[in-house]
Amino acid sequence: MTNRFEHMDCERIEEMLPAFVEHELVPKEASLVRAHVESCPRCGEALQAFTVMERSLVTRREEVPPFEAFLPPALAPSRWHPSIFVRSLRALTSVPGMAIVLVMWAGFLIARYSDRLTGGVLEKTTLDRMMAFAKRGIDAIVSAAGGDMTTLTAVYGALAIAVIVSAGALTMRFVRD
Amino acid sequence: MSNDQERDLVARAARGDARAFRALIATHHSTAYAVVRAILGPRRFDDVDDVMQLVYLKTYQGLAGFRGESKFSTWLYQIARREALDVVSKRTLESTSIDDVVIPARASDLPDTTLGESDMKQWIERAMGELDESYRTAIELRYMAEKSYEEIADLMRLPVGTVKTYVHRGKLELKRIMSRPAWREHKGAVS
Ligand SMILES: [Zn+2]
Predict the structure, then answer these.
(1) Chain A contact for B34 (CB, 8 A cutoff)
(2) Contact A61 B30 (CB under 8 A)
(3) For ligand 1, a single-atom ion, which residues have Cβ within 5 Å?
(4) Partner of A167 for a Cys bridge, out of A31, A97, B11, B127, CB 3.0 to 4.6 A?
(5) Is A104 an interface residue toward B (CB < 8 Å)?
(6) ipTM of this model?
(7) Which one, of A68, A53, A6, A166, lies nearest residue B131 by Cα?
(8) Is residue B11 assigned to a domain?
(9) Which residues, at least 6 apart from A67, have a Cβ–Cβ distance to it below 8 Å?
(10) Are residues B163 and B84 in the same domain?
(11) Which of B124, B140, B171 shows the shortest C-beta gap to A18?
(12) B110 and B173, same domain (yes or no)
């Protein structure tokens, strides 16, 4: 079934099998191996063995236990390690926090703008009513403070920071580092 | 993780930031674990947990003196290697007969069914114990830690070609070990 020449190559072919199974051989070598194992049952069996071995070796990654178990006790994650300051800082830069405040801001701007367009009569949907209510609240604060541009900016700024911080804090509750 | 991010984490961890330390370890844990497993081998498996705890303690204590001349991964690899080798040399002094154990030791230890996937796993685990430590290290880094040949070469400070040779020779050796008559009798061993 197999000729002498092919048998002479068996040892060399077997040495190439681990690399063949990993697809690490150059195409020329790979086709040499492929041609040989097709005609040589012994090397065909060896290839089968290395293939099974490869499948088994790949599962070794599952043997790595979580790292937390090996940390010194002082460094293990604790449930009560909030550090409000650090959390707030992180929250300020959290993407969902920023996204939410941008949407809110846009909402307020639209509410103000559409108010100006319709003379304050556009209060149809619940969202519009909520927006208008919030706006009236802010306007009340602004007018109480004298209605100048600086106060207005400060109020909106404070509101923005409050929203970012709370959205960020909320995110942190669900997404643990 | 970029080099800059890693440097930042190392600096923060060195100042006592536990969160930064955990982030570093989370990234490189599989490397440290694979090295410790490779050096201790299956026969000293019971020591793995103790050594790992020691490795992370030493890593934390040593951070202040880590100047970043090498990558954090290389540094951690060396600590893991040193601590594992330390245990191996101590244990060898305690019990000189441990290396006389022939694997498989008793026929009753061998699987009596045809070799399935889970049996294959156990057999490889045993045969790994008979490999050269450098072959075993390369194989564990490749499979347990899922490192590329380039990454392994970096860690072991060897040319990439040498690492590939270690892994491939290691596999040839594993097959040879599992083909021994003592293993073969109990049917289905890799022929
Ligand atoms: Zn052949």
Answers:
(1) yes
(2) yes
(3) A 10, 40, 43
(4) A97
(5) no
(6) 0.83
(7) A53
(8) yes
(9) B22, B25, B26, B29, B33, B56
(10) no
(11) B171
(12) yes
